[in-house]
Amino acid sequence: MLTAYDYSMAKLVDQAGVDVILVGDSASNVMAGNETTLPITLDQMIYHGSSVVRAVKRSLVVVDLPFGTYQGNSKEALVSAIRIMKETHADAVKMEGGEEILESVNRILSAGIPVMGHLGLMPQSIHKYGTYSVRAKQDEEAKKLISDAKLLEEAGCFAIVLEKIPSKLGEKVAKELRIPVIGIGAGSGVDGQVLVIHDMLGITQEFSPRFLRRYHNLAAEIRGAVENYINDVRILDFPNEKEQY
Ligand code: KIV
Question: How does pLDDT run across 158-194, given as a tens digit for each residue?
Fold first, then answer.
């Protein structure tokens, strides 16, 4: 699984053969430049989701329900999920949390909308944690994570993302669940992996957690191309004879 937030990128990611495209609320960080995922709105997620769906021919598309659209009110959660499905034509929604959001998860599932869970580090709860460091290192939090994962599976979630937890815990959860467990910083013992596309392509530079493997240094390539363009325009090399009418 990889994230995508716009038509052009989603087309490339889909063509490359990824199984799942996540229209993550990380769009708030990488597309809009916010410090957290909290400010992104449902309308903005729908804009990103519908752009991605228009590009995709084969991957499953999952759209994040943004902060404040499903916590604490299951009726509002259902309305938010229905808007995502109706207005983006995506295949499923993703929600952060376990027991606390179970009523919302159940209500959305009972409307026939597939739900992907998200446990471990949940960026929408950053103000509760105060830090983006590894979660569930202590027994109590690890036990709650396992119990939440089982609750989500029993409720009918079709997959769960585990973010930034010890690899042994990731492996244990994956072994105990029948549904796929997709990790980001959850080690190699889970069933699948997800990364933010801007991070793995090296477009973002300031974010360097241990779990991130950069497959490219696009930041340098893009800057280089733009510098060449500026230079060509300044020295009157662009456009040349063949590049004009
Ligand atoms: O929003 C997002 O990109 C995510 C992934 C990090 C799993 O939730």
Answer: 999 999 999 999 999 999 999 999 999 999 999 999 9
Q: Render 10-42 in DSSP notation, one character per residue.
A: HHHHHHHT-SEEEE-TTHHHHTT--SSSTT--H
Residue 172 phi, psi (nearest 5): -60, -45
Q: Which residues line ligand 1 (CB under 6 A)?
A: 3, 22, 24-26, 64, 118, 161, 163, 184, 194, 196
Per-residue pLDDT at 126:
98
User: Using omega within 30 degrees of 0 as the cis cutoff, is the peptide bond preceding 180 cis?
Assistant: no
CB 63 within 8 A of CB 151: no
Query: Residue 77: its pLDDT value, please?
Result: 98
**Nearest residue to 212 via CA among 200, 223, 204, 203:** 200
227-233, long-range: CB < 8 A, 24+ apart: none
Residue 152 structure tokens: 């989500």
Give the pLDDT score at 237.
Answer: 98
pLDDT (mean) for 80-93: 98
How far CA 2 is from CA of 20, 61, 145, 146, 240, in Å, comes to 7, 10, 23, 24, 39
Best residue for ligand 1 mutational test, from 13, 20, 25, 135 (most atoms within 8 Å of Cβ): 25
For residue 111, the model assigns a pLDDT of 98
